[in-house]
Amino acid sequence: MLFKPFSYWFLSKKDKAFSDTLYSVVGIFPKNISLYKQAFRHTSVAKEIKNGVKDSYERLEFLGDAILGSVIAHYFFSKFPVKDEGYLTKMRSRMVSRTYLNQLSVKMGIHKFIELKGDLGRSVYGDVLEALIGAIYLDKGYRKTRNFVILNIVQNYVNLEELINTETDFKSKLIEISQKEKIVLEFKSEEIGVKNGNKIYNATMYLNGKIETIGTGFSKKNAEQEAAKIYFEKKDNHKA
Question: Which of 61, 127, 130, 139 is catalytic?
Answer without folding.
Answer: 130
